[in-house]
Here is the input.
Amino acid sequence: MHADLSLTVDGRRHELTVDTRTTVLDALREHLDITSAKKGCDHGQCGACTVLLDGRRTLSCLSLAVAHDGSEVTTADGLGADGELHPLQEAFLAHDAYQCGYCTPGQICSAVGMLEEAAAGHPSVVTPDLSADLTAGVDLDRTEIAERMSGNLCRCGAYAHIVDAVDEVAHREVAR
Amino acid sequence: MTLTPHAMGTAVPRPEGPEKVRGRAPYAFEHPAAEPLYLFPVQAAIARGRVTAIDTSAADALDGVVLVLTPETAPRLSDAIDPDHGVLQSAQVHQHGQYVAAVVATTSETAREAAELVRVTYAQEPHVAALDEDSPELYGPDTLVTGAPSDDTRGDPDAALAQAAVTVRATYRTSMEHHQPMEPHTTVAVWEGGRLVVHEATQAVSWTRQTLAGAFGLAEDDVDVVAPHVGGGFGSKGGTHPNTVLTALVARAVPGRTVKYALTRQQMFDLVGYRPATIQHVALGADADGRLTAITHDVVEQSSRIQEFVEPTAAFSRGMYEADTRRTSHRVAPLDIGVPTYMRAPGEAPGSFGAECAMDELAVALGVDPIELRVRNEPEVDPEEGLPYSSRNLVACLRRGAELFDWSRRDPTPRSRLVDGWWHGSGVAAATFPVVRFPGSEARVRAARNGVAGNGSGAPRYVVEIAASDIGQGAWAALTAIAADALDVPVERIDLAIGDTAFGSASPAGGSSGTTSWGAAITEAAERFRDKYGDDPDDGDAADATTPDNPWAGEYAMHAYGAHFAEVAVHADTGEIRVPRMLGVFAAGRIVNPLTARSQFLGGMTMGLSAALHEESVLDDRFGHVVNRDLAGYHIATCADVGRMDVEWLDEDDPYVNPMGSKGIGEIGIVGAAAAIANAAHHATGVRVRSLPITLDAFL
Ligand code: FES
Ligand code: FES
Here is the structure.
């Protein structure tokens, strides 16, 4: 069974016809040749396919395309303004927060979404005081960052550098 | 020759970095193809026996299915191939999950649906899939996978153990582990006019070409293998596995069409190798001063019945410490399971767990500091080969690590620091990895002046080509730096091209050998180039070279060394184990690119942490398959598992190893990391855990 739908990806609108079993990830990679989001497990267990779907970090391998007709998708390739790199991408380069790079676009999309969640006051399992007023945002120490980034596996083991990179941007953004 | 470093030793950014953080660097599956076909396999549901019938009618009838291949309909392969590569060549089944049929369809969804509709019937035969030390099938292999002898005995260690003032005898176990690079194994294959073109997730484009040419009876020139970017490998993408042969086989049946096959994460537990489980009997004997009089390291480990792979587990104990007598041995259990393969530091990683935990146990038994014990047993010359060392700075690594870790203030009494409900402790272990140089990498240097002749018309650029692979270790950056120094120009003037058999033959990204083997070839080609054309060449001037032999081979023993320190916290009530801090100090010759080298060391240490706390492929011996066959069941370290992790390296000037003065660093980071954690866990709790992974039940 097939369905017609539209997706706006990195600012460009696409019309496509897909099998109703097609995930957002496969719609991007197989139908639109947009391969920034990676397939690591196709199963919601690795985070390599993370994109921002209508602004929230989402595992695109667990999202059926037909359920997201009209949605906005941002991949790591669409994060920077005017072809520039996003500050998190710059920080990943500066800290060498990757090796093979396969998990990296997902890590970066996840970090972008995560910083917004923290700024909006979403607590995590390591947030010390859940009764505190978090509306001004959660202070992201390294433990918070590591916890909140743990849905994105990196077999190259770049975690220490990933936390460095996210930490730098988190605190730069707070200072701004 | 020895290079003068300019670019080497400075932080050279990865040239591919901006593309990688955008997700634009193409991995194998992302190679564009017009109307590709998708492959999905049918896998054996038994561990041993025969396929008696395959009913493909329902699959054939599905709209979008192009082809269903079975052993009866598949094209024939040459006979001169590894048993593991004979996909769809016979009805025999030798492992659970073996390919028994394959579907090709116009969409991935259809291919998968059709594969599920294929009905296979089997005649089952009894199988063995449990590693059992008492198995009558155990045998002594001739050699380890490295080519070294399986067994080696010097003196009479049993007599020395009987007379030793202090002895430690213990059995250590390590688990079957799977590499699980984040990019699944992938092949994109097309046959064009009798030639085979493959985009492959591989650490070794040349090896893949060789295997495919052999399997299909082609000249190597008729096979192209391309892999500019590879999403991790850790050994699993070193050798060629059945999936690659299968995809090329299926593509042969649909000439001109591109066939794509990426393994599912679950299939990654069946067919692309793993680190075999080991059982290690270690005995150490020492005199009252802590000098080793005997080391024995006797190993029983698993392999596959159809194809031998002998993990060189005890090899670590052959050269690490001085001892009057020594025995190392390996016995193999042939099982009806997939074929093991190299996984990051094959041998050293599991072997160091047994050996370095035993050293810690000996230190405790003697009442000697574990660092001091290692210092007392530092050899003058390499105990295995009897050669002097090109450089060996294990003691300096231990001392520097002790300083950074405040070791002198450590109270050695186990179970003596309880903080907020957590037992804390610290541990140390040593690491080593050999300097490996593979022969046969071809490098080519060519001047590019936009078609303009030489003589001062603007500075030339240099195209440097070699069929090397970058699986994340940083070959793009490191080889650029080496080429720049070899040509004595800034890195900006180098255009490196790798990952393509169009550039000739090259050895794999494996054995921590890449920088040595490829760098030596590039240096040689650059030297020939400069001899011939000087520093103002004409457009198109070119020179090539193949990895030269090391003139110092056989004169010196060449190894990198390191020391791991770990702090462990174990929850007093739940037994939960955490590793708040790790430190690795390494002496590995010149560090070619500090920016990416730190990532390699950290990556190795993180994988060591992962092996220490999480990794275990659970084989169900009733069926012969791995039960926890996805990333929810097979745990690897996540971001939250990693606490503070520091890396330092010592300056080491070694003129003997290669022109760069560098030693391989891709694997040493994992060697000894798990032992340091287990030793720290003992210091924290008084509980000696002798099997990996270390889970909370050990402390309850
Ligand atoms: S590919 Fe989506 S979570 Fe792994
Ligand atoms: S950089 Fe390779 S998996 Fe993260």
